[in-house]
Specification:
By secondary structure, this protein is mostly helical. The protein is built from six helices and no strands. The radius of gyration is 17 Å and the shape is globular.
Length: about 150
């Protein structure tokens, strides 16, 4: 966005890949990816990805199935962001994140959490208080240098 604000449109983890636009015929990625949790990843050059996709076969089928799942996730995120309160948006994002992590320990700043649904940081504080009542426990540290 022009003012530098952002909103999360998808969660990618050990189940997926970045750069769908590249193998679908684009030359650049129209959005940016932010690493939210520690882990490992593989990096391939764009040429290798495009060449392997063009061969057809198993890699192409896998990439296309993943793309279908990603589009579905993005559509569900759009509906959730439009029709659900911030607390439900946060819970959805948290479940998506936990599904892709090796542990149940999610370490993130309030600012980063607020970027997921595209809300102000104060909206996260209110959500945190509400989730204590529903027994969803999480702690947010003010020191973002640890994340």
């Amino acid at each position: 966005m022009e003012n530098g604000a952002s909103a999360g449109i998808a969660v990618v983890g050990n189940d997926g890949l970045l750069g769908v636009a590249l193998f679908m015929g684009g030359e650049t990625m129209p959005n940016r990816a932010i690493v939210q949790s520690a882990g490992e990843a593989f990096r391939l050059s764009g040429e290798i990805v495009k060449d392997e996709f063009a061969r057809g076969g198993a890699v192409q089928c896998l990439f296309l199935r993943y793309t279908q799942a990603l589009i579905t996730q993005m559509a569900q995120t759009a509906v959730c962001n439009r029709h659900h309160p911030i607390s439900q948006q946060f819970c959805r994002w948290l479940l998506l994140s936990l599904d892709r992590l090796d542990s149940s320990d999610v370490r993130m700043t309030q600012e980063r959490i607020a970027n997921m649904p595209g809300v102000r940081r104060t909206g996260v504080t209110g959500t945190r208080r509400g989730n204590y009542r529903t027994k969803v426990l999480f702690a947010i540290r003010a020191d973002s240098s640890k994340y």
